[in-house]
Each structure stands twice: as structure tokens, then as C-alpha cells.
Amino acid sequence: MASKATLAVVDSIATITIDNPPVNALHPEVSRDIHDCLRVAGADAAVRCVVIIGAGRHFVAGADLNYVTTIDRTEGERYALGVQAMQDTIGTIPQPVIAAINGTALGGGCELAMACDIRIADERAVLGQPEVTLGLIPGAGGTQNLPRLVGLGVAKRMVFTGERISAARALAIGLVDEVVPAGTVLDAALTLARTIAANAPLAVTAAKRSITLGMQMSVLDAHRMEATLFAPLVETDDLQEGAAAFFAKRPPTFHRR
User: What is the model's pTM?
Assistant: First the structure.
């Protein structure tokens, strides 16, 4: 069976393309294939940033209703936990992950985008959590990540109404970080990925870990963790290279050591 998500690595940037026609619905096999790509990219020391995009006109249009309507509660919980596990890997691999939202990102697609570190949307993209209009609730982080991104009231309105919002509205409420002209989202994501990839990889990984874990802690505990992650970086060759390049007014060349 052909993979529903493919991985390509070019110049230290890994691109994961979701390809499950016609709308890239998030069947368990799709989630599994994305998960496999994430694990491979995360374990590759040459990869410094990851971009996720959908093939065609959709990012991920939501759960696979043909599948969901045939399962029982045990399988339903297993399905939700499987998608959550895939999204947890986005947070735990060393590299930043950018969602290039090229089109429809509803339900599981919106949840997948929210699990990424940074979200860039095509101006034509549509986002939302419409599960209640179908008799469900979000099952892959929508009720948890959305209020953390956009605030409690806005999140409740989106989840309770199931409304779909434009990319412009998503930018205004903080659900996405950038909106770009139609057809340019992959280029924008790759440009940002290259900027990230040019920085010291050990430092970027530590920064990602500090932000991700710190958001789950008190500020006091998070500050202490930040210091713990900061400390070993002062002994790295990359710091010496970064400082030397700064004083010499030249681009640094980092080697992850």
C-alpha cells in the first residue's frame, strides 16, 4: 500500500507531504505515515527543520468520516490517542516543525497545524473545529491547544459553533503566525526553515524544548529549566564558532557540537 505521507530532505530541510486524496482526510493510516516520517526526520542529524504540507488543495480537511462512523468507543479512543501520539512527536523531535497550511485545515487538520511550532497559511486557507456539527468533539488536542493559542472565549466560540474561519481571521486571533499570497505557502515555509536551519542546531533544539516544556510549568520552574538547558551550550564548539563569526562579521558555520 502506498504511503499517505512522504518525506523528502533537501539541504537540511525535511518536507512531509500528506497525500490522501481527495481531501487528505486523517485516517489512522495517514496519521501513522505522518508519524513514521516525523520519526525518520527527527532522528536524522542532518535535518534542521521540518515542514508539513498537504498535497493538492487541502492541508487536512478533517477526520475520515467513512472510518469514524464505523468504529466503536474503544476504537474511537485508540484513534484519538494515535493521532495525539503523532502530534506529541512533533513536540519532542529536536527540530522545529512548520505547518504550511496550503488549504482546508478543519478538525484534525486544524489540530495537526496547532501541534506544529509555527503556522503559515495560504490566504485562501480555511480553518476550524467543526466536530460538534457532526456529533463529535475535537479528539486530537482541539479543546486543549486552541484555548492556549487564541484564548478561552474565542476557543469556546469556535468549538461550540463549529464555525470555519478565514486565514485572515486566524491571523487576527493568533491561530496562525503568517498569511501569504495564494500559491506561495510552501516557498514561505521553506524560506523560514532555511533561516532557522542557519542557526546553531543545538541551541535551536534547546530553545524548542524550553518553550514547549516551559508552557506546562509555573514561571518559576520554567526559569530554572531554562537555566539548565542554557548551561551546557556554553561549552559547545558552536558557541565558539558563533562568537568568532560575530566578531569577524561573517556568517557562522555550525556543526552541532
Answer: 0.95
